[in-house]
Amino acid sequence: MSKIPVLYSYWRSSCSWRVRIDFLKINPFGKVPAFVHNDVIFVESLAILEYLEENFSDRSPLLPKDSTERAKVRAIIIADIQPIQNIGVLKYINDNFDGQEVSKIWAKRWIESGFQKLEKMLHMTAGSYCFGDSITLADVCLVPQVYNAQRFGVNLENFPTIKRINEALLTVPAIMKSHPDRQPDAQLNL
């Protein structure tokens, strides 16, 4: 394996229908993302982000130095939204409970519930971004959550702080470049 970090990804964080045999050698779960650095394979987005933060934070740290503030940023990240509406859960609902419409209702319900809690939390922590005026790991995680919320028809007008922060983040060049719709294999309107 190469000493150069390699990120294997798919714009919607599931490549189960397009996994190559070689990829399964890297990650037996067949899920993306997978990140290879110094011959070590990392899976799961948050674990990869934490590893990058701990090993390459000299440029633009995404977590505060203070442990209390780091815990607050991590609490924003795990605001009870993503696990309930991840693609594996939605696929199960879709396959076992009357199709795609039920999974959309499920996702929308749990995203809205999570956003209600997150909106309250952000009232206590937000500045320009989720935690003050610097981009943190919470912001990196917020953009894909808002993207999914929009996909499932969540009205962002009900969440003005989330909407404002997301709009600010979408003007940041690195975030614009990494947006799901801008990935080479993006399939719009899915």
From TrEMBL:
<feature type="domain" description="GST C-terminal">
    <location>
        <begin position="66"/>
        <end position="188"/>
    </location>
</feature>
<dbReference type="InterPro" id="IPR004046">
    <property type="entry name" value="GST_C"/>
</dbReference>
<dbReference type="InterPro" id="IPR005955">
    <property type="entry name" value="GST_Zeta"/>
</dbReference>
<dbReference type="GO" id="GO:0006572">
    <property type="term" value="P:L-tyrosine catabolic process"/>
</dbReference>
<dbReference type="InterPro" id="IPR004045">
    <property type="entry name" value="Glutathione_S-Trfase_N"/>
</dbReference>
<dbReference type="GO" id="GO:0006559">
    <property type="term" value="P:L-phenylalanine catabolic process"/>
</dbReference>
<dbReference type="InterPro" id="IPR034330">
    <property type="entry name" value="GST_Zeta_C"/>
</dbReference>
<dbReference type="InterPro" id="IPR010987">
    <property type="entry name" value="Glutathione-S-Trfase_C-like"/>
</dbReference>
<dbReference type="InterPro" id="IPR036249">
    <property type="entry name" value="Thioredoxin-like_sf"/>
</dbReference>
<dbReference type="GO" id="GO:0004364">
    <property type="term" value="F:glutathione transferase activity"/>
</dbReference>
<dbReference type="GO" id="GO:0006749">
    <property type="term" value="P:glutathione metabolic process"/>
</dbReference>
<dbReference type="GO" id="GO:0005737">
    <property type="term" value="C:cytoplasm"/>
</dbReference>
<keyword id="KW-0828">Tyrosine catabolism</keyword>
<dbReference type="GO" id="GO:0016034">
    <property type="term" value="F:maleylacetoacetate isomerase activity"/>
</dbReference>
<dbReference type="Pfam" id="PF02798">
    <property type="entry name" value="GST_N"/>
</dbReference>
<feature type="domain" description="GST N-terminal">
    <location>
        <begin position="1"/>
        <end position="60"/>
    </location>
</feature>
<dbReference type="InterPro" id="IPR036282">
    <property type="entry name" value="Glutathione-S-Trfase_C_sf"/>
</dbReference>
<comment type="pathway">
    <text>Amino-acid degradation; L-phenylalanine degradation; acetoacetate and fumarate from L-phenylalanine: step 5/6.</text>
</comment>
<dbReference type="Pfam" id="PF14497">
    <property type="entry name" value="GST_C_3"/>
</dbReference>
<protein>
    <recommendedName>
        <fullName>maleylacetoacetate isomerase</fullName>
        <ecNumber>5.2.1.2</ecNumber>
    </recommendedName>
</protein>
<comment type="similarity">
    <text>Belongs to the GST superfamily. Zeta family.</text>
</comment>
<keyword id="KW-0585">Phenylalanine catabolism</keyword>
<dbReference type="InterPro" id="IPR040079">
    <property type="entry name" value="Glutathione_S-Trfase"/>
</dbReference>
